Amino acid sequence: MPGIYEVIERPIITEKSLTMNGERKYAFAVHADANKFQIRDAVETLFTDGEGEGKLTVTAVNTMIVKGKIKRYRVFGRSSVSKTPGYKKAIVTLAEGQSIKLFEGV
Fold this sequence. Notes:
By secondary structure, the protein is of the alpha+beta class. Helix content is about 15%, strand content about 35%. It contains two helices and six strands, in the order E-H-E-H-E-E-E-E.
């Protein structure tokens, strides 16, 4: 079981995830063994409200496994295949009127 500081590995900053920020949804890459309760506790503990007022309230957590993609490339006339690593992704929904300060202004 991962600790509270090992649950969230990194935020996912893509065009699609940034458009979800307006709906109070934030995407994170999380530890493969983390469950929804651990992800909820980690977000509520590690991040503060965008206005700096205090703790966040997580209303929903959705998780998914993102599979790695196969990459083909040629080296010295020979084709080679490699695979990017997969990861677990969590989309966290916050309560009405709350935001994460880390994602503001991105």
